[in-house]
Specification:
- With 293 residues, the protein is mainly alpha-helical.
- The protein has one domain.
- The protein is built from eleven helices and four strands.
- It has a two-stranded antiparallel sheet.
- Helix 1 crosses helix 9.
Length: 293
Amino acid sequence: MDSIFGVPTSALTGQVVIGLINGAFYSLMSLGLAIIFGMLHVVNFAHGAQYMMGAFVAWGILEYFGLGYWWALVVAPVVMGLLGLLMERIFLRHLYAADHVYALLLTFGVALLLEGAFRLKFGISGQPYPNPLSGGLDLGVSFIPWYRLWVIAVALAVSLGTWWFIDRTKIGSYLRAANENPNLVRTFGINVPRMLMLTYGFGVALAGFAGVMAAPIYQVSPHMGANLIIVVFAVVVIGGMGSILGSIVTGFGLGLLEGMTKLFAPDYAGVAIFIVMILTLAFRPSGLFGRSE
């Protein structure tokens, strides 16, 4: 079959793959945001800058130490997670009792500072990063690079694994309870401030991991996080602020929607996600998977 609904099969397959790739990054990024907001009630505007820094860590250890992509998958999340722990300990911890807008303004300022610093150091042009997987899958109607399939599979596995850990394990139940009822959690002998710090660090590590995954597909540049974070915030709002499963489902779903819109209504491709966000806020303000207050 050469076409479906008048669209060439090769074009349809290509847009499905592109949609799943975009959805993979939407899912990973919104997952980190949902964890941080759900557990700490912090709107982490620095998430895009932390994603960008993860990509630069991958590029830096290759450029200066000769450590390639597979090392970067481990090193970058660890480095970003440690930086996240430091940021939570020095800055965010003192704002939990204050209005949420203070933490939002703090993380927004950190994002501007980091992006400006990297722009001064590396300029606005991107740094290339080599593809770690050559070749691809030939479907006859289209050719799908192995690395794209790797990104989709790993993002799905990490997202579902994170959801299972937080939603189905005893440690995850402590995490969910730590911010809602910290006094109760303390009766189990758990250090609540440390748990919240580790939660923020894990969310930042997810952003760093996504940055490494993005490096071979997109050029590593200071603006790569700023270009993505607004869409990711829309994904989080649609899925439900703080909803782990909502971030995963809506991340991949909206990536596919964006890809299909480019085929059937290309004039609306850039705003399709935001139209869905407006409709969601109008008819279900808590999000598709969020709980009504």
